[in-house]
Amino acid sequence: MACAAGALMFVPWPEPAPPAGAGGRPFIWNQDQRWQALEVAFQRARETGCAGSRPRAEAMLGHARGFVAGAAAGRVGPESVVFDEIERTTFELGPIVAACPETIPEYVRLVTRMRSAVKRQSRHWDMRLAATRTRMYRLLYGGRSALEEAVLQAPPGFFPPLVPGDDEPSVTPSAEVLGVTVHSGDILVSRGGVPTSALIARGNDFPGNFSHVALVHVDERSHEASVIEAHIERGVAVSSLPSYLKDVKLRVMVLRLRSDLPKMMADPMLPHRAAVAALAETRRRHIPYDFAMDFADHSKLFCSEVVSAAYEPFGVTLWMGLSRISSPGLVGWLSRFGVRHFETQEPSDLEYDPQLTVVAEWRDLQTLYSDHIDNAVVDAMLEGAEQGDALGYPWLLLPLARAVKAYSSLLNAVGLVGPVPEGLSAAGALRNRQFSRMHAAIKQRVVLLASEFERVHGYRPPYWDLVDLARRARAAFRPGGRFAGGRSAARLPATERAWTLCPNTSRTTASAWPTSSGGARCARAR
Q: 271 and 212 in contact (C-beta within 8 Å)?
């Protein structure tokens, strides 16, 4: 009997067939020739040097400023050709600016003004239309990408970690955070540093840069700021601002509800009241993490839903354009983690909501390149998912995972946190572990290939080259975490494992189980 029970521990439970996705059409740039032409332009500009490139850069910046001014004047629809010109000029400026980094500050101002103009015009656009969403994505995400490509080619010191946006008026309690005045009710959209953060950011019909959303509360008397956020291992919780910032953040954006919205004009304290209510609800009851990503059912909450649920009772519906996850391979992978809703609220998409103003954005420049590599690796892995790659796990570990899950459930029952998050199955935890190991192995190979690229060409590979390197690395990958040649990802040199799994730390440790951002926990060794 005991043997039979033990044998059953090895038997995977039947899993439902992957659900249908959102039925949309994922965005594809499909402009390889354009990217190659930009790289050739960068090579030529490098040969010319800043002295030869700067006059052209300044002339193009002047033309681009004129286009942005035209886009900001009057009402302009998303179909306007002025946006075609803005997109073209923004991309073509990138290689010239990268070769002459003294022009980067003006390029930053241009991209920031362009975002402000687009968001201001989008107040009059129908966010439900695919054409509208595509236009905003090409300009806002495209502009950020072009800027970051230029920054990554420049020496340190030309790009400020903090880029101010628009200082949207607010009367709610405030606090100073890293040079920015944040107000109660502000929204923090960030990017974690673990592999599944990249999966969350890229796993969307419109792949993005952000993986987490949190709500700011500032106490009226003490002006102490706290953060309300959903962690997968312990559900919704309140963190101090220092604790929030201590977790690896590759980028953070501050968003604020527009002060001229009808609801805000009637009640300027609305954001603070939403934050107060969310704080009280979090302290009143245990709110589990919602792996299904059902933003309509607030008995459980995922990170984006923490914010949308807070504002909903006050008549504000965030995510005017819902996120869609349509690719069958991606849907299949996410469903194995428990996701059941594929028309939902993704962190990256909140930036496109015209009800919100971008107040500021921080980037960790030391890890920005690692962020790009993470994205490229996930993009290559998701291409594999569309080609039939399964997200499996070593079935021999299933009994151990089930025992750990049972132990975790006992801890959850008495209000404690276990190694396997509440709501995540044992098989899901193993898949998370396998995904992180695959990502780490492919990334380690990409880092080596990128270093060789830089040695040969004299500059870092831009994103399109990183994706190509990631495809090559993935093609060399073999089941069981091995590359062609038999090298195991689990047996990387210790320094390479640390760099790969936990960037931006000198020495690190990593657990096998997910953390709040969905991947291995990284902590600086003391």
A: no
Per-residue pLDDT tens over the stretch 374-398 = 999 999 999 999 999 988 888 788 8
Q: Which amino acid is at 142?
A: G
Report the alpha-carbon distance of residue 394 to residue 167 in Å, rounded. 51
Let me know: does 94 contact 147? Beta carbons within 8 Å: yes
Please answer whether residues 325 and 347 qualify as being in contact, where contact means their C-beta atoms are separated by less than 8 angstroms. Answer: no
Please say whether the dihedral angle defined by the alpha carbons of residues 295, 520, 17 and 325, taken in this order, is positive or negative: positive
**Which residues are within 8 A (CB) of 91 and not within 5 positions of it... i.e. 6 or more apart?**
34, 38, 142, 146
Residue in 454, 271, 485 with CA at minimum distance from that of residue 373: 454
Helix (H) or strand (E) run with residue 409 in it: helix 398-413
Residues pairing with 227 in the sheet? 216, 239
Q: Which long-range contacts (CB under 8 A, 24 or more apart) does 125-131 make?
A: 125/77, 125/78, 125/354, 127/320, 127/321, 127/352, 127/353, 127/354, 128/320, 128/321, 129/78, 130/24, 130/25, 131/78, 131/79
DSSP string, 202-270: HSSSS--S--EEEEEEE-TTT--EEEEEEETTTEEEEEEHHHHHHS--SEEEEEEE-TTSHHHHH-TTH
- % helix, strand, coil for the chain, step of 5: 50, 15, 35
Q: What is the mean pLDDT of the chain?
A: 87
Which residues neighbour 445 within 8 Å (Cβ) at sequence distance 6 or greater?
Answer: 473, 476, 483
pLDDT tens digits for range 441-478: 999 999 999 999 999 999 999 999 999 999 999 998 75
Name residues whose C-beta falls within 8 Å of residue 469's C-beta, 6 or more positions apart in sequence: 376, 446, 449, 450, 453, 461
- Between strands 251-257 and 356-363, the pairing is antiparallel
Give tens-digit pLDDT for 16-33: 677 888 889 999 999 999
Confidence of residue 267 (pLDDT cuts 50, 70, 90): very high
| Continuous segment of H or E residues that includes residue 508 | strand 508-514
Nearest to 163 by CA among 114, 119, 207, 211: 114
Strands (DSSP E) found in 341-390 = 343-344, 356-363
3-state secondary structure (DSSP) of residue 384: helix
In what side-by-side order are the strands of the sheet with 251-257?
162-164, 356-363, 251-257, 187-191, 212-218, 225-231, 235-240
Number of helices and strands in the chain (H, E)? 17, 15
What the block records as the tokens of 32 is 């390889």
Q: Do 442 and 308 contact (CB within 8 A), yes or no?
A: no
Model confidence pLDDT, tens digit, residues 393-441 = 887 888 888 898 898 888 888 888 888 888 888 999 999 999 999 999 9
Residue 85, helix vs strand vs coil: helix
β-strand pairing of 187-191 with 477-478: unpaired
Give me the phi and psi of 386, to 5 degrees please. -70, -20
How far apart (Å, rounded) are the C-alpha atoms in residues 447 and 500? 9
